[in-house]
Amino acid sequence: MFAYYFTLGLRSLRRNPALTALMIVTLAVGVAASMATLTVLYVMSGDPIPEKSDRLFVPRVDTAPLVGYAAGDEPSDQLNYTDATNLLRSGQGVRRTAVYGVGNAIETGRADLPPFLAQGVAPTRDFFAMFNVPFLYGGPWDVATETAKSNVIVLNRELSEKLFGKTNPVGKRITMDSEQWQIVGVIDKWNPLPRYYRLINGNGGNFSGADEYFIPFQTAVRHEFSNNGNNNCTGEGPKEPGYQGWIASECDWIQFWFEGKSASDQARIKEFLAAYVTDQKKLGRFPRPINVRLENVMEWMKHLGVVGADTKLSTWLAFGFLLVCLVNTVGLLLAKFSARAGEVGVRRALGATRGNIFQQFLIEATVIGLVGGLLGLILSFGGLWLISMQSEEMAIVAKMDWAMLALTLALSIFASILAGLLPTWRACQVTPALQLKTQ
Amino acid sequence: MEIRPILSSLLRNKTGALLIAAQVALSLAIVANALYIIHDRLERAARTSGVADETSMFRLGVAQMKDPESAEGKLAVQDRNYDLIRGVPGVASVARTNQSPLSRSGWNMGLSLDTKQAETTTNTAMYFGQDSMVKTFGLKLIEGRDFVADDVETIDPDKTQSLGRTAILTQVLAKKLFPASSAVGKTIYLGTGSDAFPLQVVGVVEKLQTPWANVGERGEISTILAARRVESYGMFVVRAEPGQRDRVMKDVEAALGKVPGQVVMGTESMEKDRIDLYRDDRAIAWMLITVTVLLLLVTASGIVGMATLWVNQRRKQIGVRRALGARRIDILRYFITENLMITTGGIVAGLLLAVALNQLLVSQLELPKLPLGYLAIGSTVLWLIGVLAVYGPAWRASSISPAIATRSA
Are residues B222 and B353 in the same domain? Predict the structure, then answer.
């Protein structure tokens, strides 16, 4: 019976073509607007590392001076050099890394490739294992190299291909900042969305931009490379000028990550942080009351407001729009179905139950939803294309995957069924005798 | 008037009317809020930066592969690059700076009135360099004077954190620091506490936006200092002769890039910086405009659809009324009045919804509060759309010939 009603529904599309077309277009536009904005929201707020996002933690401690303290103040988002190195040595969790941004000129010595600036990060060795960074060639530098603060470098695939083509460059040397650096590894395509591992960056923002190379944290500090990113000084700032004054100061510029064995390590590491601050107080640091935070990946992204207010606004608005489209479809379906009271009367008189009528009309509404959904799918691609024209960042996030594709169709069908309920119920109320008498 | 009979007939057949009213209410709620956000964003993007003729301006950065060791070496790099830029025909003015308006990246520092303060009085965007930014940016000096050569202090960042002795403030900042009197001649401090550096205010400019062009007053709190930093890295802002920017930009980039061991980066016109800075604002405004137009179209089509249905259902009654002496205008008026009653009901509900939606946006997304004027605009628009949408079906209803309408079953 379903197949038959479905065919009837398809045929009925040709009845009142203007009204039907209006319904389909309304539904399609509403669905398209909602899905286009929802896709952006979905990509932006997605979990970039679902397998361990609940056991990667960002610590925050409040090193600011006592003056100006108000209860409820948030600790700074980054760490200063002193705390970062102390926490690296702490042995808490299974892995730890400190990350900051660097930018250096790479000399190629080739006539066809003039010197250029490349953007990279300086993490510790654990970084690669913590964030599941895939390697194409070689691997991370070893512990001995890290301790010796040697000039070693890991390239990303693009930079490697730019310099060496599609060959394996591990073991070769490049000239950066007028010094020789040995290549130990090349990472494969790796561009998590959002770039959760270093959200506070000086290159590209939360979604676009890529880190082209990786050098050991302590090597970068030995070279006195300054941070390419956000440098924040609450209070007095450095007491001494120059780089050594900078790293001795309470200014924060380093992003730090712990990896726990499981999600339950969050409480344990947080306790450790409080103990650490208590300990440091003895040295005259941390004048404020103990105020520590430890956030996992999703909490951290929420804290930094990765999904902007504008994105939320667009999504809300689009769903408001879908609601209007839905109300409109209810009205139009009501008009369409009420014109068929005579048909319902005849069918009921010939023995069809109310249930049969209900089924038939609801399936007819579903058919409209299906056609509207297909049209809506095309329109959502159009909408996403428009959104991706706005900026590089939007071009990266405005991409639909299979889940969203399926959701578009499902939303459209669900919307049409919802819209069809009232008109269908009304159609079922037709009294056959009355209807037949007036004919 | 005919309101009573129309009302009683409406009350008999409520569903359709309620649906239209609900649609109008939802549309009004969304349209009023959307119009306000559109206006707010476009107004934000239309603010001026204080820089005269932005279309002639561009910026670029210069870095060295190998930093010279000595201070003299670093200063020599600066001097050489000045000469290279000035050597390009069509360069009207050039200034070395640490940041450029609208470029979204720069320095933010605290100023205080007294070193004994626990906290700085205000944060300010900090522009500094050895040249006249007043001249290169084309700023309007409203009080005091521009920097002279004696004001410029040469500073080695490896030895001191000072940034000079003199300052030019924007009007907004001057008023904020010295509400009652003129700022010129006063001493302010960079930072606070015993390490703070004193600065003497020598002039006030009408306007110079921060590199971020923040919303509200904060967007115009900027300070200019006269300091020549000993460093080989540097950003230059260049004003080209009118109409020659693109060529001058290319030529300057080429002239600086030819020096071995020197890298030119971040070349961007101020026009492009402005587009990039307000990209999101314009994008959200256009998205809202699209949604508003679509929404009004959908609402209008809904009204047309329902009105057509009602006309078809009442063909017989219309025929009878016409046969009993009603003129065409009476029929037309009937449908338009009926529609006005429904939309008015919708609008009343919509006004409440709009305020509620605004409350939600204010609390959740920190959006500004909706001025009442937008409710009036939204209501008028929906009233007009209601009347326009119903006019077609109503006119068709009035053209029904009484003879034919009453004859059929």
Answer: no
Residues B26, B150: one domain? no
Tens-place pLDDT, residues B180-220: 999 999 999 988 888 889 999 999 999 999 998 988 889 99
**CB count, 10 Å around CB of A277?**
21
A178/B63 Cβ within 8 A: no
Tell which of B192, B226, B260 closes a domain: B260
CA distance A78 to A83: 10
* B285 and B152 belong to one structural domain: no
Query: What is the domain range of residue B180?
Result: 67-260
Q: Under an 8 A CB cutoff, do B263 and A321 touch?
A: no
Count of alpha carbons within 13 angstroms of residue A362, beta-carbon side: 15
Question: Is B355 inside a domain boundary?
Answer: yes
DSSP reduced 3-state for A419: helix
Contact B301 A26 (CB under 8 A): yes
Q: Cα A320 from chain centroid?
A: 23
In B229-263, which positions are buried (b, 16+ CB within 10 angstroms) versus exposed (e)?
bbbbbbbbbbbbeeebbeebbebbbebbbeeeebb
Of A308, A325, A330, the CB nearest to B298: A325
A26/B306 CB distance under 8 A: no
Structure tokens at B345: 């009901």
Q: Decide if A93 contacts A57 (C-beta within 8 A).
A: yes
Query: pTM of the entire structure?
Result: 0.81
Tokens at A1, concatenated = 């019976």
Quick check: is B224 in a domain? Answer: yes
Q: Residue B265: its chain A contacts at CB < 8 A? A: 117
Assess whether B401 and B340 both reside in one domain.
Answer: yes
Peptide bond into A289 cis (omega under 30): no
**How far is B144 from chain A, CA to nearest CA, in Å?**
31
Q: Of the candidates B66, B158, B312, which has its C-beta nearest A178's C-beta?
A: B66
CA distance A328 to chain B (A): 5
Sign of CA dihedral A216, A218, A223, A227: positive
Q: Are residues B126 and B254 in the same domain?
A: yes
Judging contacts by C-beta atoms under 8 Å, the chain B residues touching residue A117 are 63, 263, 265
Residues of B in contact with A338 (CB under 8 A): 309, 313
Instruction: Please report which helix (H) or strand (E) contains residue B168, including its range.
Output: strand B166-170
For B119, which residue in chain A has the nearest alpha carbon?
A68
* Side chain identity at residue A48, one-letter code: P
pLDDT at A202: 66
pLDDT at site B138: 95
Is B396 within the bounds of a domain?
A: yes
Instruction: Please indicate, yes or no, whether residues B220 and B291 belong to a single structural domain of this protein.
Output: no
ipTM for the complex? 0.80
Residues 96-115 of A with CB under 8 A from B: 105, 107, 114-115
Number of CB pairs, chain A paired with chain B, less than 8 A apart? 135
Q: Where are chain A's structural domains?
A: 2-45+308-438, 56-303
Q: Is the pLDDT of residue A93 over 80?
A: yes
**Residue in A116, A238, A324 closest to B27 by CB:** A324
Among A199, A195, A200, A253, CA closest to A227? A253
Q: Are B14 and A421 in contact (CB under 8 A)?
A: no
Strand, helix or coil for residue A316: helix
Q: Is the pLDDT of residue A439 over 60?
A: no
Per-residue model confidence (pLDDT) at position B106: 83
Q: Which of A68, A312, A328 minimises the CB distance to B23?
A: A328
Q: Same structural domain for residues B27 and B173?
A: no
Same domain, B132 and B201: yes
- Answer whether residue B59 is part of any domain: no
| A249 within 8 A of A232, measured Cβ to Cβ | no
pLDDT at A141: 96
C-alpha span between A292 and A153 (Å, rounded): 34
In chain B, how many domains are there? 2
Q: Residue B163: beta bridge partners? A: none
